[in-house]
Amino acid sequence: NIPLFNKIHLFSDTMNPIIIITVFLLICKITLDLFLKTKAGFILKATGDNEQLVLSLGVNKDLIKIMGLMLSNALVALGGALMAQYQGFSDVGMGTGIVVMGLASVIIGESLFGRIKALNATTRVLLGALVYKLAVSIALTVGLAPTDLKLVTAIIVVIALSLNKNPLKIITKQKIKEGGVLNASNTKSAQSVQ
After folding, report:
1. Cα four-point dihedral sign 10, 70, 101, 113
2. How far apart are CA 74 and CA 61, in angstroms?
3. Whether the predicted pLDDT of 167 surpasses 50
4. Within the chain, where are the H helices?
5. By the 8 A CB rule, do 149 and 141 touch?
6. How far is the CA of 98 from the CAs of 62, 72, 79, 86, 190, in angstroms?
7. Model confidence pLDDT, tens digit, residues 90-125
């Protein structure tokens, strides 16, 4: 446990901490969005989706993985530094359970807001984090014990995953299996291919 009470830090000023955190959040989000639109950003996303494709393009996949780890560790370090300054101390157990919250935020954001094409991935994750924290605060307000938050997290993730089931995907796959001529909107062009 390292106290920071006697040190001058970012939140020792009279400015509202929410404004400071929001500024950092917006800077990180905009920077990450701009990076993910570059060639290196596209390759990083492609490595996460299909490692063999990136390898077949002649890109060193290990170097891309290291770049992704560097980027994520920089964001984690920034978050830890902000949290330590906000709380006034640093402790080894400060980040316990944060990975579960992060995964839940990604799952909730993609499940609830994945169909909205106007939102990019970082916005969906931020909205998922807000929904997750809102659900946890409602659970605590209702009177659930803080030890039951793992159960609340599991229930939230299961609900988000069940909302992600899209019956249109099943119908579309079935139509593809049935054949193209019967379901084509322009049957003349479909028959000319045969």
Report:
1. positive
2. 20
3. no
4. 17-36, 39-49, 51-56, 61-87, 98-113, 121-142, 149-163, 167-178, 180-183, 187-193
5. no
6. 26, 14, 11, 17, 52
7. 888 887 778 888 888 898 888 888 888 888 989 999
Positive or negative torsion for Cα 27, 30, 32, 34: negative
Tell me the three-class secondary structure of 153-164, residue by residue: HHHHHHHHHHHC
Half-sphere exposure of 95 (CA within 13 A, CB side): 11
Q: Could you give the CA distance from residue 13 to residue 6 in angstroms, rounded to a whole number?
A: 13
DSSP 148-189: GHHHHHHHHHHHHHHHT--HHHHHHHHHHHH-HHHH-S-HHH
